[in-house]
Amino acid sequence: MPTTAAGSTGTTATDTATRLREAAYALFEQQGYAATTVDQIAAEAGVGRTTFFRVFGSKEDVIFPDHEALAARVAARLDTLGDDPGAAPLGATEAARIVLEHYLAEGDLARARYRLTASVPTLRDREVSSTAGYRRRFRDALRGWTGEEPGDDLRAEVVAGSIVTAHNHVLRRWLRGAVDDDGARRELDRALGLVLASVAATGRSGGADQVPPDDGRPGDGRPGTPAGGSTVVVLRSGASLEEVLPELQAALARVEVRVEA
Amino acid sequence: MPTTAAGSTGTTATDTATRLREAAYALFEQQGYAATTVDQIAAEAGVGRTTFFRVFGSKEDVIFPDHEALAARVAARLDTLGDDPGAAPLGATEAARIVLEHYLAEGDLARARYRLTASVPTLRDREVSSTAGYRRRFRDALRGWTGEEPGDDLRAEVVAGSIVTAHNHVLRRWLRGAVDDDGARRELDRALGLVLASVAATGRSGGADQVPPDDGRPGDGRPGTPAGGSTVVVLRSGASLEEVLPELQAALARVEVRVEA
DNA sequence: GAGCGTACGGTACTGAGTACCGCTCTCGAT
DNA sequence: ATCGAGAGCGGTACTCAGTACCGTACGCTC
């Protein structure tokens, strides 16, 4: 118990974690990740090696945010989707924004982490594999939306992966300094709009199934607000609706689509 | 297996590697991954511990295929795309098939690996991060297709991720025994068709840009031959019909389209 | 003050991964 | 046949991450 002011308790644990993290980042940037030992980090933070492993489970954990907790918050938001299919795009967008906002709040810490992960292969791998938890949560939430079964949920997996990819794309641009905070928020909306638009009608796998007739929300961050007018397209074809729908939807991107028979 | 080592020397090296791999898999299935030490594997294979680390760089490497070599083959196929945008879907499908065929050829070995990765978190992470190389290769190849720049290639990233996701979805179904070899090949065609169809028209980033009017190839591995019927699609949108019509027709290429008001 | 939970430090151990040295067998040249 | 030369292999010794266990100091409650 060295040098801790006698009055304050409770915040001690947090302080220890913070000191360890700061010491770790400083040493990593200075000597490199591999060349820095846990002993050095602990010594620099003024604690024992045991304490390091008690606070962070491993040398890698001191770098990364608590993805499990973050993914749990994402899942919680996704759970509020209920059975209303029209709420899915908005809900997914908000869920993704939870993650983005977390990084924005971290600020320079997130940037320092990016510098590390960009240069150390081990850490990059760790970061990549950390996306699996998010993909899984989005996939599970999206299954109700695609009407697929757990073993056979290609669409849900693809869309979930696309959401995560779109988020990470924007996040990386922010990490590199290509956009500022608000720019990142706007780009996330735009990117997810692009990704989710191509799914809106893909929806249910059953050929004649219902597609959300109208999501009712005007412009959830989508680009152009449509202004009425309707068009009827008659497809005469041997191709089933299911087959042409993805292409059709993609072609119409940001246009609301309703399918009748 | 994808050991590109020119066999100038005897078959000794390959034999040692094979013995080590078989010993490792046997011990892993019997005692579990964590409980098996490299010493045990080496002893079981009748070689020294040093030899193990000379042949496989790490304990994990003995399990996984040479993803780098495999991804290089994928990249080689992708390089033959040239500038013809119509060739992209076919080329991407064939590139993905290279990977699938590799696993199919592995047979039981791939299944044994799947059993391991499904139960050991460390190995699952490794497997997840190994997909990054494939995604990167597809993304780079697709950039010519989407007309995007390296720092700002959202579409290419999303499509690349979707291709890998679709492939892994089918692969996992095969690994679980849900489909046989030919079934997996067919499902890969179908899954990639679904994924790539939604991109065909998304193509170039410019909104009103030209999309390949017709790729001319009938059924590049697309699923079933359709059987007649017509479909009515109602578009409710602020976008004028003239705006969407070119894309729409391109998307439907092989489908007769009639537009009514 | 006695008991109790918590946070911490220290010691000792396992096992992966690395560096280095030395052995042996084979091949080709002289 | 002899002599390197090089490849493949084994052994030793070391570093360091991660785990298990024990002991201790502090604050809190009864």
Count of helix runs of chain A = 10
Text of the CATH class of the largest domain in chain A: Mainly Alpha
Class from secondary-structure proportions of chain A:
mainly alpha
What's the end-to-end separation of chain A, in Å? 73 Å
Mean pLDDT of chain A: 78
Catalogue the unreliable spans of chain A.
Answer: 1-13, 201-244, 251-261
Q: State the share of residues found in helices of chain A, binned by percent.
A: 55-70%
List the quaternary state of the chains.
homodimer
Quote the CATH topology of the largest domain in chain A: Tetracycline Repressor, domain 2
Let me know the number of strands of chain A.
2
Number of domains of chain A: 3
Categorize the overall geometry of chain A. Answer: elongated
CATH architecture of the largest domain in chain A: Orthogonal Bundle
Order of helices and strands of chain A: HHHHHHHHHEHE
Keywords (chains A, B): DNA-binding, Transcription, Transcription regulation
Pfam families (chains A, B): TetR_N (PF00440)
GO molecular function, one term (chains A, B): transcription cis-regulatory region binding
Q: What does this entry look like structurally?
A:
Two copies of one chain form a homodimer. Chain A is mostly helical and 261 residues long. Chain A has three domains: 1-63, Homeodomain-like (Arc Repressor Mutant, subunit A); 67-200, Orthogonal Bundle (Tetracycline Repressor, domain 2), CATH 1.10.357.10; 229-261, no CATH class. Chain A contains ten helices and two strands. The first copy, chain A, has helices at residues 12-31, 38-45, 49-55, 67-79, 88-106, 108-119, 121-146, 154-175, 181-200, 241-252; strands spanning 230-236, 257-260. Chain A is elongated, with a radius of gyration of 23 Å. At the A-B interface, helix 7, helix 8, helix 9, strand 1 and helix 10 of A face helix 7, helix 8, helix 9, strand 1 and helix 10 of B. Strand 2 (257-260) of chain A pairs antiparallel with strand 1 (230-236) of chain B. Chain A binds a DNA duplex (30 and 30 nucleotides) through residues 1, 9, 12-13, 16, 37-39, 47-51, 53-54, 57-59. Chains A, B: Residues 203-231 are annotated as: Disordered. Chains A, B: Residues 14-74 form the HTH tetR-type domain. Chains A, B: Pfam families: TetR_N.
